[in-house]
Design a protein that fits this description.
Length: about 190
Amino acid sequence: RSSSWWSMTATSAFPALPIPGDHALQQLHHWDYQTGLRSGRLFESECSILCRGPCPVAVLLIDLDNFRRFNDGGYREEGDRAITLAARVLSEKLRRQADRIYRLHTAGDEFVVFFAVETSRDAYRQSDRLRGALASVNVPCSVGIAFAEGSTTRDPAQLLRLATTNKHIAKKRGGNTVYPPDEPPPSPVIA
């Protein structure tokens, strides 16, 4: 009976993945149990495939501001609700098939967003739209952007490092902001 319950839960809670062998354990490994988002484990492999095209791409690192207050203050359930709400809002705002959202670490408050854009200015606008959507539900965040253009393969780890650096700058500027801002030059370019 319990295996039947598990099969129904795993099937209904997690979307089907195109993984060779399609084993339930592989699926669970690649999806975050709390949010239903892709896990950070999938970021590098999926991003390296998506980065091969000629379209400019943006990688965002979204870090929920002041999240430590939940963990240090003993309000873990409130923190879990904030994580779940953030995942839902991001999922609702990013609806294109090629858009990807990952929860970077299972126990963390960071999300990685990957999407195609036309310009670095578009990357900023989309980032600020996501930041504003989270702020409107009382989940402020700091967002670091990495933008890459050109037809060469871009390294996902390098993009994530740049987004991380920019996220730290956004935090130092007081949080609930996007960095780099929408002014020339809007972002270092990785080609």
